[in-house]
Amino acid sequence: MRAWMMLVLGIAACDGGEPIVEDTDSQDTDVADTDVSDTDVSDTDGATFAAVDVILQRSCATYGCHAGPELVTGLDLSSGQAYGDLVNVPSFEAAGLDRVKPGDAANSYLIAKLAGEQESVGGAGDRMPSPFGLSADELDLITAWVNAGAPE
């Protein structure tokens, strides 16, 4: 029963609209084992993908959303896949924008989506992660990483 409820809650937490599902060969990601205790998200000076990945694993790479065999909008944010699915990849929801444009957070759809400003750039759906979004420090760290050139 618990697994069924987790699946329902996980799906409800995603975009809220009709999901676009892409079947993949991804393995399930168990983010419960992700240690985030040592990640200082307020330190944007040294924003690295490793720090961004911790946030993504905890907040986005959940089964039924952006991890597992059925991915919303085809975006796989599971560990080992997130970078390649984000950087220099066209956005599914906002024509003309990449998900992450290195060095240019203002023109990266990921930042608009995380800030809840997706409609202002031609995107759609809810702020991510739904329903509450990220903390200001987490959003600042991801923005700093993008503006630093989105280094791997």
Entry keywords:
152 residues, mainly alpha, 2 strands, 31% helix, disordered N terminus
How does the SSE layout of this entry go?
Elements: H1 2-13, E1 21-23, H2 49-59, E2 70-72, H3 82-86, H4 109-115, H5 136-147
Antiparallel strand pairs: 1-2
Shape estimate: globular
Order of helices and strands: HEHEHHH
Distance between the termini: 39 Å
Most strands sheet: 2 strands, antiparallel
Average pLDDT figure: 78
Strand content: under 5%
* Total of DSSP H or I helical runs spanning 4+ residues: 5
Low-confidence stretches: 1-37
Please estimate the helix content: 25-40%
Rounded to an integer in angstroms, the radius of gyration calculated over CA atoms is 14 Å
Biggest sheet strand line-up: 1-2
Strand runs, count: 2
Structural class: mainly alpha
Number of domains: 1
Kindly describe this structure.
With 152 residues, this protein is mainly alpha-helical. It has one domain. Helix content is 31%, strand content 4%. It has five helices and two strands, in the order H-E-H-E-H-H-H. The chain has helices at 2-13, 49-59, 82-86, 109-115, 136-147, and strands at residues 21-23, 70-72. A two-stranded antiparallel ribbon has the order 1-2. The N and C termini lie far apart (39 Å).
